[in-house]
Design brief:
Elements: H1 14-22, H2 25-28, E1 29-32, H3 34-40, E2 49-52, H4 56-65, E3 69-74, E4 79-84, E5 87-93, E6 95-100, E7 105-109, H5 113-118, E8 127-129, E9 136-138, H6 142-147, H7 157-163, H8 167-178, H9 186-194, H10 203-214, H11 220-228, H12 241-257, H13 263-270, H14 275-284, H15 289-299, H16 307-326, H17 331-337, H18 349-354, H19 361-376, H20 382-394
Parallel strand pairs: 2-5
Antiparallel strand pairs: 1-2, 1-8, 3-4, 4-5, 6-7, 8-9
Helix pairs in contact: 7-9, 8-10, 8-11, 10-13, 11-12, 12-13, 14-15, 15-16, 19-20
The structure holds adenosine-5'-triphosphate and magnesium ion (MG).
Magnesium ion binds next to loops.
Length: about 400
């Protein structure tokens, strides 16, 4: 593990360096959290967070003076967002927790870096780096833990979970991303012992964290530990080893196809394999209507026909989901979908009425029969579709 934040990439951004200088350099502002952790591992960095000793009003003032656009995104929590060419940078005043109840924390501003570090969840997430020199400030041995792929709570794991029950799921998410699944670890034992406390969490937060966990490159070892430790019991009791096996199979196919992880699709694989029970779980997790529709389509009734027929009936997303959950998409199928726009039946009820049908259920019925013929004929244009309608009506 490097001793300091390596240069290059986002670290060399001139505007970011100027922003940190405006906040007083390494004494006034430091990089923290995911950006430091991921840089040390040589991984790409998504967003850069800055911690600062200055109160948010002072941050606003300094940025304004320096002509840097600042948005007071969460003044009460101490967060100001600086808008830089590289993207938004969250600048958060050092804090410590004054009260916690497992779901919310009341925070106060602090002036001590170590206090700010102590309220973070895992040692690898509490690494700070001097923005000017890259020097690390590591109060809890996070660098060594990161090197050893050890996800370790700061302080007493049980007490930290009592402060915020979501940390159980965060533990498994970071385990999936950076750690070795270790059933003998005392932090794992704390998660197992405290799993029931997650019942108090909002379903939205649970679902959000679960999808993030499932979206990591390989969540399977973490998921197996979760099932073994009955971690799902209070939040998703339907998730068992069979679900994890389906996720594992899905991931194997994703890899074969060179696809990027899709946390939601993996959640669908983890859910009960039929539409109705899966939808009940989805409702309980308060998943959005859009996501619930995706689940219903992916697990719904069987559709006959080739990949285009599937896409016509279920939409392209639905067709791909359905295939991915069962087997790999063949190159030929991928070719059939590439640059293909799902067509619409070019004949309507009016055309059938013009041909002598009476408005009513018969029209809808005939349209459905016509649609089947039209799909089987390879989605021909209006003229041929009308000829198919004539054939159908002669019978
Ligand atoms: P990611 O790459 O997934 O965004 P991250 O480390 O940036 O990883 P975030 O969830 O964005 O994770 O949180 C940013 C930082 O805030 C964490 O690194 C951690 O220090 C702290 N943090 C976030 N959530 C919690 C929590 N529930 N309890 C304690 N500290 C937390
Ligand atoms: Mg982050």
């Amino acid at each position: 593990m490097p001793e300091a934040l390596p240069p290059g990439g986002w670290r060399d951004d001139a505007e970011l360096t100027r922003l940190c200088a405006v906040l007083g350099g390494g004494e006034g502002a430091r990089f923290v959290g995911g950006a430091v952790r991921d840089s040390l591992l040589g991984l790409p960095v998504k967003d850069v967070d800055v911690a600062t000793i200055h109160h948010p009003q002072e941050v606003m003032h300094r940025l304004k003076e320096a002509g840097i656009r600042a948005v007071p995104t969460g003044l009460a929590h101490g967060t100001v967002t600086a808008i830089l060419p590289m993207g938004p940078i969250e600048i958060t005043t050092l804090r410590h927790d004054v009260a916690t109840d497992g779901r919310h924390a009341t925070v106060a501003f602090a002036s001590d870096w170590q206090e700010d570090a102590a309220r973070r969840d895992f040692t690898m997430n509490a690494l700070y780096a001097d923005p000017m020199t890259g020097a690390l400030h590591d109060y809890f041995g996070g660098s060594a833990d990161l090197a050893a792929a050890r996800v370790r709570f700061i302080g007493d794991a049980r007490a930290r979970i009592d402060e915020d029950h979501l940390r159980i799921l965060r533990y498994f998410r970071f385990l999936a991303r950076f750690g070795h699944a270790d059933a003998a670890s005392s932090d794992y034992a704390a998660c197992v012992a405290k799993a029931a406390t997650m019942m108090a969490l909002s379903r939205e937060r649970v679902a959000d964290e679960l999808v993030k966990l499932l979206g990591t490159a390989d969540p399977v070892p973490a998921l197996r530990l979760m099932v073994e430790g009955h971690i799902f019991a209070p939040i998703l009791p339907e998730a068992g080893m069979d679900g994890v096996d389906r996720v594992a199979a899905l991931i194997a196919r994703e890899r074969e196809m060179g696809e990027t992880p899709d946390g939601l699709l993996r959640l669908i694989a983890l859910l009960p394999a039929e539409a109705e029970p899966a939808d009940k779980v989805a409702a309980r997790l308060k998943l959005s209507n859009k996501v619930r529709a995706r689940i219903a389509t992916a697990l719904g009734e069987k559709v006959e026909g080739d990949v285009r027929a599937l896409a016509y009936r279920l939409g392209v997303r639905g067709a791909l989901d359905r295939i991915a959950l069962g087997r790999a998409l063949t190159p030929a199928e991928a070719g059939l979908l590439a640059d293909w726009t799902v067509p619409r039946l070019p004949v309507g009820g009016g055309d059938l009425i013009a041909r002598g049908l009476t408005a009513g259920p018969e029209v809808a019925q005939t349209l459905r029969a016509l649609e089947d013929k039209w799909i089987a004929a390879g989605y021909p244009g209006r003229e041929d579709a009308l000829a198919l309608a004539d054939q159908l009506l002669e019978r």
